[in-house]
Amino acid sequence: MTRPMRNFTQGELDWRPWVAPLDITTATQEQLAALKITPSNRAVGAYSLVLAHDPEALEQRSPLYNAIMFGPRGLPRAERELGAVVASCINGCAYCASVHAKRFTELTKAPEVMQRIQADGVDAALAPRQKAIVDYAAKLTHDPAAITPADAAPLRAQGLSDFEILDLTHAVAMFAWANRLMQTLGEATTPAREGNPL
Amino acid sequence: MSDLMDTLAGITANSILGNLRRQRPDVVKHLQGSDDVIFSPQDDGGLTRAERAAAALRVTTLLRDPVLSEHYRARLAMLDPDGTLARTVEGGARITEVRWDAILAHVDLVTRGPGSAERKDIDNLLAAGLSSHAIVSLSQLIAYVNFQSRVLAGLRMLKGAA
Question: Which of 14-73 (B) contact A at CB < 8 A?
Answer without folding.
Answer: 16-17, 20-21, 23-24, 26-27, 29-31, 33-34, 36-38, 41-43, 45, 63-65
